[in-house]
Design a protein that fits this description.
alpha+beta, seven-stranded antiparallel β-sheet, two-stranded antiparallel ribbon, 4 helices, 27% strand, globular
Length: 147
């Protein structure tokens, strides 16, 4: 079963729960919808000043990590529910791009148009600056969320 992780809370991804979690983004920073295998997830942050959301999807490992922007709350909710329900069409309607990770450091190499890149000029609500966490640090944080 999929789950929604918001702060230290974990809930079953019903439409109501996902709508509630998306509504809380400006206050908690990010949310995560993951499947049983922690290497399959969608993480989301809100882009400040607009009803836009950065989605990053990992499909089993760093080599299959992509990102896209949802341009409305309803688009985001549709995608998250579809992912949680394993609907194969959940990714449609978005422009997905591969996010490359440095094998040595484990850090993502953000292209200039990525919303968390300093070159994008965008601000992510709940974050002072782009998040420089390595893949290992992300995994460690995700492991502590459920405790």
């Amino acid at each position: 079963m999929a789950s929604v992780v918001l702060g230290d809370g974990v809930v079953v991804p019903t439409r109501e729960a996902v709508e509630w979690a998306v509504g809380g983004l400006p206050y908690v920073g990010s949310l995560l919808v993951e499947l049983e295998d922690g290497d399959w997830y969608v993480q989301v942050v809100k882009i400040a000043g607009a009803d836009h959301y950065l989605m990053e999807h990992r499909a089993g490992g760093a080599a299959r990590h992509v990102w896209a922007v949802a341009h409305s709350r309803e688009e985001l909710i549709r995608a998250l529910l579809g992912f949680a329900q394993r609907d194969e069409t959940w990714m449609t309607g978005f422009t997905w791009e591969v996010l490359e990770f440095d094998e040595t450091t484990g850090y993502a190499s953000l292209p200039p148009r990525h919303p968390m890149s300093p070159e994008s000029g965008l601000t992510i609500e709940g974050f002072e600056s782009p998040n420089p966490l390595s893949d290992k640090e992300h995994e460690d944080l995700r492991g502590n969320w459920g405790e």
